[in-house]
Amino acid sequence: MLRMKTKTIALAVFLTAAASVITFCQTRTPNSVEKTVLIETSLGSIRVKLYNETPEHRDNFLKLAGEGFYDSLLFHRVINGFMVQAGDPSSRSAQPGQRYGSGGTGYTIPAEINPAQHFHKKGALAAARTGDQVNPERRSSGSQFYIVQGKVAGDEELTQTEVNISRQPLQSMFNRALSEKLEALRAKGLPINQDSLASEARQSVMAEWERMEKFAYTPEQREAYKTGGGTPFLDGAYTVFGEVLEGLDVVDKIAAVETQPGDRPTQDVLIIKMTVEK
Fold this sequence. Notes:
Layout: H1 13-16, E1 36-41, E2 44-50, H2 55-67, E3 75-79, E4 83-86, E5 108-109, E6 124-127, E7 140-141, E8 145-148, H3 155-167, H4 170-188, H5 194-211, H6 219-227, E9 240-246, H7 248-255, E10 271-276
Antiparallel strand pairs: 1-2, 1-10, 2-9, 3-4, 4-8, 5-7, 6-8, 6-9
């Protein structure tokens, strides 16, 4: 099941559990014109633009939309105050009461995650994916996407999110330092004390981390979250590759529908057609 993480990452995660390294996209020279796609749904139309800075996701979405892949698919997962999700091809022949969310194209897309540039404000278009435990590279589903509805966030939540995002590389840094120190001891034929070794690795990681530049939202991003809302706790973990230009009211309508267990709407909400506009 392609389920998005709904809890912030623990501050001391590098000491207690495995965590993934944040994978930032390498910005390519953008085209002068951003492509737009019209998503006609059974509750109204949504027009989105696709970011040129996420070319892998942009091109894949344009290809699928142009081929009619999304036509007649369900919004199979809807959570009011959070997001609306679609793109499972098995939902085209939807059966009453059946849960969807595990279907896709058979391929994944490399992460193009850059929260400093593209973030989960209301109306953000982002790629769903499987969890970090089975997908440490945070590769995106080939077809499933979500549109953020979210909630208004305050300064305290945003500051905590900045800390969480900044700390995401710590586990991989710790693993690397531990491995290097272990190999050095083995090469010299010296005895190995696991507790002492872990303590030394932890100290070196924290010293290195303190020198690193920390993530921080821009004033404009903070204002967007504090006024329009969104889901900041997803920043740094999922690829945001576009945003809604028109139809936020339709996103609200979809998010507000009654749902059954598993978050599928009781009355099906369909993508009637997607049209690549330019």
